[in-house]
Amino acid sequence: MLQFFQRLIGRPPRSQLPPFDFARNRFHAKKTWPPNLRELTDKQNFRFERKFKRRLRLKSIRPQWQKWTKIVQWSMISFVVVYGVLFHDYAKDPMNPRPGEQPFKGLREWMWGLWGGFWTHTTSPEGTLGGAEGREERKGAKTR
User: Fold this and answer.
1) Which intervals of the chain are annotated as region Disordered (predicted)?
2) What is the pLDDT of residue 144?
3) Is omega for the bond preceding 19 within 30 degrees of 0, making it cis?
């Protein structure tokens, strides 16, 4: 059970192997790593930097992470904008430069009027007739 929680947390189990001994390695590297940049010429240094910057850039591309990061960021931005425009009480906000004033009052009234009208049943001709027919009917009714 402990291994299950360690796997969930992301901690790898402790290895039972002895630590690696580089002195007894049978397969020695062809080049020393990291290279001593002071021993390289300017041209070699430039090639080295360009090659490893490119490799680092390719390694750092994680499309799944970038996709979800973008989704979360835009969701948070949308939430803050909608909350700030439709729900926040600016009249009682101590940071409001004009106390008692609602900057989005007209937009709020229009939005809540649409939302409130969406759930109610109207018997007026404007509410029951939509589209071009409704406009023609209303025009005819007004001109008579």
Assistant:
1) 123-144
2) 47
3) no
Low-confidence ranges of the chain (pLDDT < 70): 11-13, 122-144
- Which amino acid belongs to residue 46? F
- φ/ψ region of 10 (left if φ > 0, alpha if ψ in -120 to 50, else beta) reads left
State the DSSP code for 100: T
Q: Which residues lie below 8 Å from residue 40, measured CB to CB, with a gap of 6+?
A: 48
Number of helices (H) and strands (E), helices first, in the chain? Answer: 6, 0
Distance CA 91, CA 100 (A): 4
Phi, then psi, of 36 in degrees rounded to 5:
-80, 110
Say which amino acid occupies 102: Q
List, for residues 11-48, the tens digit of each pLDDT value. 666 778 888 888 888 888 888 878 888 899 999 999 99
